[in-house]
Write the structure tokens for this entry.
Amino acid sequence: MTFEVGVDVGGTFTDLALTDGERLVVAKVPSTPRDQARGVLHGLEQLGADPGRLRRFAHGTTVATNAALERRGARTVLVTTEGFRDLLEIGRQNRPSLYDLFRDRTPPVIPRDLVVEAPERVAADGTVLRPLDADAVAVVAREVAALRPEAVALCLLFSFLRPEHEAAIAATLRATGLPVSVSSEVLPVFREYERASTTALDAYVAPALSRYLRSLDGALRDAGLGCEVEVMRSGGGTFGATTAASNPVHTLLSGPAAGAWGAAAVGLGCGVTDLIAFDMGGTSTDATLIEGGRPRTTAEGQVAGLPFAVPSTEIHTVGAGGGSVAWGDAGGALRVGPRSAGADPGPACYGKGGTDPTVTDAYLLLGLLHPDAPLGGSLRLEPAPATDALERLAASLGLETQAAAAGVVRVVEAHIAKALRVVSVERGRDPRRLALLAFGGAGPLHQGALARELGCPLVIVPRYPGVLSALGLLAAPRSASGARTVLRELNAEVASGLAAGWAGLEADVRASMDDAVVVRSADCRYRGQSFELEVMAPDEGDTTSGLARAFHDAHRERYGYALPEEAIEVVNLRVRAEAPRPVFALPSVPPGRGSAEARRGERTVRIEGRDTACAVFERDALGAGDRLHGPTIVAGVDATCLLLPGQHAEVDGVGNLLIRDA
């Protein structure tokens, strides 16, 4: 018998899900930041999974994300057109905080003293104004070598129209053994700043991701793995590890994208296609909108304030997780995050030497977690260090310890509620018409308060909420994408040119995916506008009129109006290739024998400022059809769910909790 495994490596825990098509086994083990491959192998060992019997290994990674967030990427040199040394420094004129005179813009990953200028110039129409000869290429190569780079980002002006100059420089630099990210290969579209920033990030994280994937692949091969390691893309779907190492910028949101796909799969299994999902882990919370059974995607992503323009799952992240540190600011206000205690030493209650008060420590003092119930099934929590940490915080704020702990939870919920509004209300979606799906190790503890604040009529807590990202990896298909700039007015004369452009992109993405279904789209705008909306190309009929109708409809939906009399410009053509979705379904759970069979006692929990007696139920002992009424604690191996007074839950056929207010 062979198996499939999904492995999601987070900042605090590594989650694994193993299936043979009929049964499902999950595990959660502490991450090993110094060598993440060790944590992965430990998780496989805990599952009893022989790598030699795996037919699929799908992986979500935060290596590229963390390299960018923590500024621990490679020493990278940027080669750009002469006169454009300050391209990354200038960026765009938008400000991160319009009225904050002291707020600094996020510095680029490549400082200006690591920029080399190439004596060349291409015009906006593709005309070569200043050729680049062999002698100039040699000079550029010497200047790059003198800066002792570990990686090189190559982004010349209008190279998406004429890539010859970039190709010449790249060939010379690659001959020296340097990894080189080339903008006409990474992102052959217009807007020089976004193209340069994307290429810079690609080069900056490439060595770290390449080392990690080599280490992981080598360790798994030594253990007997025979299949290819697949890596989750930021935009959803997976690609091979070799391709991922060559296109690292596509993995910047790898882990969060896996969670979004898992949420979509669970929603579809419940017959719900439109929902808001949030993943609260140890370090952060990721919020996303699922529409039509798929996570929303965007052509513009951001990590640590740095833009990258490759397809990404539309996710809003806030620094609010179980390991987020609580602190008092200079004005005496309670703050939580964005700093996290991480996995090592972790929250004070982990007993690993951490002394900072965290959200998890607050859970323990409020009774939401219990020292007799190991976190993740193996990590026992220690109340004494948690109490000491929160007593110090409470004293600094002039509060009682319990009040400080409750305040920590309320602040975290305010952060998450704001993130949920960003992906719903700010996108024109009414959360009162959407279900809320709570997952991650800590998400189900907050489902009730957040559902009530947003007005969501239904909450779905998956059977395995703490490892849903790992499940999402098993539900995600292999995928590929491509884009190119055309900048043409949409009319009948350009129809054949658009068709030829799409056909060329389609041939590229089909080269490695023969069985893929390819979807065509275009970035369009009204003439004179500065930004575009992506719309799907019509499957049949007149391409130009169909694309125009789709754009007018999309503009009306996003902005509340359309201008049918205005000319439309097609800016970029895009294609997305997707292999058939893996056949993945959660196994059924046996019929329940009444929730009393799963009751494991009672404990006092502080809810809404009052000590409240809560029945405690074992999640794995609940069966299909069992009903629960709040206030109740539902304790699982990977996560704990809190039902507030007035809430009731029913277990569906695959073990999900469907929660509504009475």
User: Anything to note?
Assistant: Residues 192-222 form the longest helix (31 residues). DSSP finds 16 helices and 35 strands in the chain. The first strand starts at residue 3 and ends at 9.
